[in-house]
Amino acid sequence: MYLSSRKGSIIISKRLTRQESREITRKELLQAAAELFAECGVNGTSVEQIVERAGYTRGAFYGNFDGKHELVLALLEQRTEHELKEVQTLSRRAGSFEEMIEHLRGWHRERDKNFVSWLALRTELWLYGLRDPKMLPLLADRERRSREAMTQALAQGFAARSVTPPAPVEQLALIVHALDDGLSIQRALAPDDDTARNVMDAVDLLIRSWTALARTGANDPTDPPGPGNDTPRP
């Protein structure tokens, strides 16, 4: 297999190694599967459709995956790693938490170009996992890793403001993570509703609210509501 590229008027061809060729085949099969899962669902997509979309044979498919289930697992891991690396890269480039928020706004705008298919695929992978108890730990691990990245970002934001979070940062990260999921669904249902589109505005509002709450020395949020619990602690 050759990989060709054009540089000026010269065509450069490189003979790929067996491993390089296999990696390209695997990547293109995963891409074809992602597109079809978003369009037809995991259970509505066959191996034959995947190889036809990717332009390969069944032999190429089974040379990379034992079956569709293994492909789903590989796709889930690929998406998790890709999104985490993107967010971590943005975090490293940011000089402050505010700059991180702006970088994430740009990341969301870029994702919006294929938002419906992105959400459809994510939902399909969730549903596939929910119907297979063996998949649940893998889905839970994906969510945990995403929340850990958010936890780290929030901790850095509070530290930059020299405030103590008003609740465990892990709990706040879960709230942000759930908010992102909920707003994603609302955006898909009402694409013209600007209030549902600006997820980073909502996150920014939360961060500023939590920062203000931390600076007022408000009650421990784990305190149960009731008489006597609405007065500030000394």
Structure description:
The structure is a single chain. With 234 residues, this protein is mainly α. It has 2 domains: 49 residues, Arc Repressor Mutant, subunit A; 144 residues, Tetracycline Repressor, domain 2. Helices cover 69% and strands 5% of the residues. It contains 10 helices and 2 strands; from the N terminus they run ββαααααααααα. A two-stranded antiparallel ribbon has the order 1-2. Strand 1 and strand 2 form a beta hairpin. Helix 1 crosses helix 2. The protein is elongated, with a radius of gyration of 22 Å. The termini are far apart.
Structural class: mainly alpha
Number of domains: 2
Strand line-up across the major sheet: 1-2
**Helix count from the secondary structure assignment:** 10
How many strand units?
2
**Top-tier CATH class of the largest domain:** Mainly Alpha
| CATH topology grouping of the largest domain | Tetracycline Repressor, domain 2
So, the CATH homologous superfamily of the largest domain?
Answer: Tetracycline Repressor, domain 2
**Into which percent range does the helicity of residues fall?**
55-70%
Terminal CA distance reads: 73 Å
Low-confidence segments, given as residue ranges, are 4-12, 223-234
Inertia-based shape: elongated
